[in-house]
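Suppose you are handed a protein chain with no further information: no name, no annotation, nothing but its sequence. What can you learn? This example shows the usual starting point.
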Amino acid sequence: MKYMLLHAVDESRLENLPPQIEGELEAWVEEMVGRRVELDGARLHPTSDATTVRLAGGEVQVTDGPFAETKEQVAGYDVIDCPDLDTAIAVASAHPTLHVGAIEVRAFDAGMADPVVPESPAEGKRRYLMLVCADMRNSWERADGGEAEPDRADGDDEPEDVSRWIADAAERRIYGWALEHPSRAVTVRRLDGEVMTTDGPFAETKEQVAGFDLLECSDLDDAIQVAAGHPVADGGVLELRPLWA
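A reasonable first move is to predict its three-dimensional structure. Written in structure tokens, the prediction is:
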């Protein structure tokens, strides 16, 4: 089963990283690639380089900054393949991000193929992670406090609309997939040297990450055009973040 690891970090803590973190990261990647657990992953540019895209009344609205104003922000991601959630949590628990932040572990919806990502972007192109975000609060719990089956996210349209968007994006979209409902997420942290897990996403925000796409575009304007055509842009929000080369 495939899982996404969303690395959530207070960016102010990145100014004083432990000296051993780069070596630990290289060792983690080498081990997970060797075990065929790691399928894709990248570090993202800071939130100062984030761009959010929405549709309001049929008009495209573009703003600087991330989709949610939270203390911790997504700083990177990994796509991993594990037999079960416990194994995915163990993989996340070994990642050096836990020195400075948390990792949200989210399963992908069934049916996702292994991503095929060329090592480097094509000449003149730049890669962006597009986080597809929607308001899912109305489907988290029943009125009596029991757990509800997740409903379709607000702003999420029928699959054929997504299929048309994929066709329009063409070679600018490398791959992407929907994630399971955030109520099924597990967040991993390290407190006082002990790994702790909690149910739910890393931040309780109005909008939550519902899926993602990896884009390869000529520039930010090209990426914005792709994001604006996504069916979730009408009712949700798309956050674009450039990847570190």
